[in-house]
Amino acid sequence: MKEIRNRKLLWMTAASGIFSFLVLNRWVVTDLKEKSFGRVWQYYVSWVDFGFHRRGLVGTLLTESGLNSVFQNEYLFAYFIYGILIAISYFLIVKVLISNEKLSSDNILIFCVLFSPAIFLHFAYSSGNQDILLFILFLIAIFFTQSALGLSLVVVSGLLVHELFVFFLPCIFMLKFIANEKPKLWPDWRIIRPAIAALVTILVIMVFGKINVSASTFEFLMSKRIPIAAYQHPLWSGYNELASSLQDNMNTGENMISHMWLYKYHLLIPSIYAVFIAWMPSWFMVSRRTVKITMFAVIVFPLIASCVAADYYRWIAISACLGLFSMILLISKNMLSVPKWTLVMLMFFSVFSPFGSAVLDRPFPMHQLLMEKIFR
Q1: Which one, of 237, 305, 318, lies nearest residue 53 by Cα?
Q2: CB within 8 A of 42, min separation 6: which ones?
Q3: pLDDT number for residue 4
Q4: N or C: which end of the chain has fewer CB within 10 A?
Q5: What is the DSSP letter of 355?
Q6: Where are the alpha helices (DSSP H) in the chain?
């Protein structure tokens, strides 16, 4: 029986993986070709070149190890690295599902995860950022770290990959506390030490994270590192992101928010999906009301990132990821049992896969792309 369950899980994983591969490689049929990937600077910017700055961990490791020079075409390297990251996320999720009998026997739940419009298919579409790596670090934090040191390393790494990992932290710490199999004593140093490490890292990024070279100098060097991608995207070099202030980012978010009412019908389905997923573990978990309310709050917390990072559908997807995997963790700990009808309702959202990223009038970009190809 266990072998049959595992075989079904692997077949569904394979089907999801094929769909994700097709979405990631949509450049074959798009007018943008390989530039459909979006920004690639995050794989090439290095602390050795510009000193310490935010979002520099990945580029520094790849540049100083020489790995990002293996491919002459930086877009092909980006697709290669991104494909590996998607494969790692599949591996981690299958490992979690297959290790628990209650999870591995729930085919509807597995379907809701593997074909979610906010996880694999969304990450395959929204490729020009570090969200997939932050998601992997989130999975490692809640499922695979047991010690304070391990959790500290994960949260510090996440913040150095992208400072907006801060929006994952309340959910991570909440889950580590309530799902802890040992007695819940306070102060709990297994949470306090990683929280202190995160706070120190955030302060360092706030004080020293803004890049301190001129745009011309930065873009000259980056054009040498990524000559094919240079000037192919308004944000091709990364300078705007790395040199912007909090006020600049808030202005960007405010501009997006001011236009949201114009696209209220576009936003409706993704927003309902995220709120519904946040409601499920919050409402049905076995705990006090204050814990339920806090659980809901930490799951929807990433939506606040829209105020500084725009990209509303990106943060809808992140919020949904937090909700789905909070649900999976709590089910595995026998702290949650969700009614089958809620999972069936969740399953129907898969027909909208994947959700979009930054453009408000493209909530379902692959559907819209297909319709444009058919009727143009």
Answers
A1: 237
A2: 55, 58, 59, 129, 130, 238
A3: 59
A4: C
A5: P
A6: 2-24, 47-50, 57-65, 74-98, 101-104, 107-114, 120-125, 131-139, 148-161, 169-178, 189-208, 215-225, 239-243, 246-259, 264-284, 289-300, 306-309, 312-332, 340-348, 365-375
What pLDDT is recorded for position 1? 53
More confident residue, 309 or 84: 84
Give CA–CA dist 163/55, Å, rounded.
Answer: 7
DSSP lists the bridge partners of residue 285 as 336
The mean pLDDT value of the chain amounts to 89
- Residue 234 · residue 128 · CB < 8 Å: no
Whether residue 180 has pLDDT greater than 70 = yes
Q: Which amino acid is at 300?
A: V
Cβ neighbours, 10 Å, residue 275: 18
Share of the chain above pLDDT 90, in %: 59
Longest alpha-carbon distance in the chain: 63
189-221 burial: b if 16+ Cβ within 10 Å, else e: ebbeebbebbeebbeebeeebebebeeeebbeb
Helix axes 74-98, 2-24, angle to 10 degrees: 160
8 A C-beta contact, residue 267 and residue 303: no
As beta bridge partners, residue 336 has: 285
Q: Distances from the Cα of 187 to the Cαs of 138, 193, 291, 358, in angstroms?
A: 23, 10, 17, 41
Residue among 190, 185, 178 at smallest CA distance from 282: 178
Tokens 């310490």 — which residue?
52
Query: Does the reported pTM lie above 0.85?
Result: yes
| pLDDT one-digit tens code per residue, 121-161 | 999 998 888 999 999 999 999 999 988 999 999 999 999 99
CA distances from 306 to 137, 164, 202, 250, 254 (A): 21, 11, 19, 9, 9
